[in-house]
Design a protein that fits this description.
Layout lengths: L2 H15 L5 H18 L4 H18 L5
Helix pairs in contact: 1-2, 2-3
Length: 67
C-alpha cells in the first residue's frame, strides 16, 4: 500500500498551504489536515486533528511571512 502514505503527504502539504489569517482559521485548517492524514493512515482522528491544529498554529506563529 504505497499509495496511502503518498496521498497523506500530498493532502497534508496542500492543506498546510492554506495556513489561515487568524488563529481560529489556523486551528481549523490544521485540524482538518491532521484528521485527513490520520484517516488515510488508519490512525486516531481526534489525535491527528489535535496534532495538526497545534502544528499549524505553531508553524504560522514561528513563520508569519510564509502564512
Amino acid at each position: 500500500m504505497q499509495a496511502k502514505p503518498i496521498l497523506a503527504a500530498l493532502a497534508l502539504c496542500s492543506t498546510l498551504v492554506a495556513c489561515g489569517d487568524t488563529t481560529g482559521e489556523q486551528v481549523v485548517y490544521g485540524a482538518g489536515a491532521g484528521a485527513l492524514g490520520s484517516a488515510l493512515l488508519d490512525g486516531n482522528l481526534v489525535t491527528g486533528a489535535a496534532v495538526g491544529a497545534a502544528a499549524n498554529v505553531i508553524f504560522c506563529k514561528e513563520n508569519p511571512s510564509r502564512c
